[in-house]
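Each field is listed here:
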Amino acid sequence: MLFFTSDTHFSDRRVLGIDRRPYGSLEEHDEGLIANWNATVGPEDEVWHLGDFARGTAEAIDGLLARLNGRKQLIIGNNDGQATVTSRHWASVQHYAELEVEGRFLVLCHYPFRTWNRMAKGAFNLHGHSHGRLKPLPRQRDVGVDAQGYRPIAAASLFITRSRRSGMLEATGSQEG
């Protein structure tokens, strides 16, 4: 399976106060996010982390990544230091990526865009950075942990919305035409 996440901010004390995450200590925060990640993501799954992964030494970052399930790709965020960016545990590291998933074109960046490639053709913008505080545009999803129950979100879940008219769940944004 394919998952997306962002803004885990492991080992970053600022998230407990600024983002008001529901953890009593930084250790509880980090262990809670690790448990949620590993309960959601299997060892063979792929995870795109859209930035602001962690603070710490190279050894600490490597140790943390080794504990997390899945093949991990990094989209660099504004708080990702050299130890994070250069870790050998990332399958890839870049500032921006475009993927086609389940017939949908995805534009990945740490930052939310006002407009993005193939937007008029149904492309989705997946981002982090805003910690669930921005009102999204159509086909724009904040995959950060603050907006997704403190765990990675499956790609298929990103394409399901509640119809305003019927209240029923329905797929959105197919790539036809």
